Amino acid sequence: MSSPNENWQTTRPTICSRVSYMFNNELMSDVSFVVPVKLGEDGNKKSKMEIPAHKFVLSISSPVFFAMFFGDLADNTHSVSLPDCEYNSLLELFRFLYCEQVELNEDNALQVLYLAKKYIVPSLVEKCIEYLKQNANISTIFTVLANAEKYEEEYLAKRCWALIDRQTKEALETEDFLTIERQLLESLVVRDSLNVKEVDLFTAVDHWATKECERLNLSCDGTSKRTVLGDKIVKAIRFPLMSRDEFNGTVLGQKILNDKETSSIEEYYNSSSLVEFSQVKRDGLQLQRCGRGYEYRTPVTTHVIMHHFRRKECICFSADRDIVLHGVCMYGSINNKYTVFIEVKQNSSHGPLEATKTGEYDSIPMKDVLGFQWDSTVVHGFDILFDMPVLIKKDAWYHVRCHEEAAKVGPVIHYNQPIDEGFRYAKSPGVTITFTNHKPIEETDYEEHIAHLIFTLD
């Protein structure tokens, strides 16, 4: 009797399409993987499911699978139990090995990264890292950071730390923070670049200690909190930077400090005597700005007849050392609102996507953006900060492309003329940035609207 699928090969002309057909298919399968699967909305009840697979397909894509099925110590079993992963994540690993596609989301990306590392599939690792770069946000940043450090993904870890430095208070208020390991907390509290008041940092650490005591079934008193925190974390809190009222109102009642430490802080407030806690102020994230080195000319104002106008720009730049790009500053016009789309790509406009940002922005005087004014000219603009900072590698070229649309009628003010042939060098403390320009497609008359790159030194 003929099988309904007996001619499936004839409808799939390429080897890729035929291999894809075998994904999650029992046809000719010679091994199955038994993995846990979460059931129910609470995600706690677990069962097990099988995924059929083909040893040949897995082995030509992963040295680990090759060793498992065809190495000197190969196991000829037809069923493999994998308790360290879940059904949906393993299914995505196999989808990539069979189809060169992967469906990542916030629930499976880290688990798929783990499997890609475990089975040595570097191309899938890159896919996962790319997804995390584009989709990590402040609410999940500590989980992403912990996994980036666990898997030694230094590039991703640096970007996570840059976001934590920039938005420290917001990061410390997330549920994600309360679940981090103590080792990561130790790395956090010693950073000089945190952008947070010391009393708020202590409050967050105290909340973490409370959750840790609950997890370990300990009483949530000062002694237990001190035990789970350890001296290294407590000593890293810079209590002398707090006001006396902050210290008395927030710290004393928690009884995390011992009597000697408390007396030392009180003596410091009374006489500024030396204490064992650091008095060095955390300097926060030192954002730098670097433009293309123009002498700003008197703005030329033109009035818009249309209800909307659109403008595009693409600049290309390179730095002579690693920096972290946090965003860009855009020129605007007086009392206007803009809808802006920004994207950053490496190497070329067709290179890998590093960051995107879309939003609506009000144009305000540049002196309010920068904290100072260049001259008597009133220049308007606005900052656009990426959700996830971008690590700019030394001597690599990056493209920043923007598409900008005004939300209402108003005067358009242009400040810079386009770069002519060649390069423009701009120096900022600790780094030299080289700019060149790429004229937007289908644009015959345009000005430069990206005023500055906003960055920190790596």
From TrEMBL:
Lipid metabolism: present as a keyword of the record? no
Among the entry's GO cellular component annotations, what is one?
A: cytosol
| Domain BTB residue range list | 29-106
Q: By what name is this protein known?
A: BTB/POZ domain-containing protein 6-like
Q: Which InterPro entries match?
A: BACK, BTB/POZ_dom, PHR, PHR_sf, SKP1/BTB/POZ_sf
Q: Does the keyword Nucleotide-binding apply?
A: no
- Please report a single Pfam family linked to this protein: BTB
Chief subcellular location: cytoplasm
Tell where it localizes. Cytoplasm
Per UniProt, the keywords (alphabetical) are:
Cytoplasm
Q: For this chain's UniProt record, which GO biological process terms are given? A: neurogenesis
Name of the encoding gene: LOC116289060
| Naturally occurring in which organism (per UniProt) | Actinia tenebrosa (Australian red waratah sea anemone)
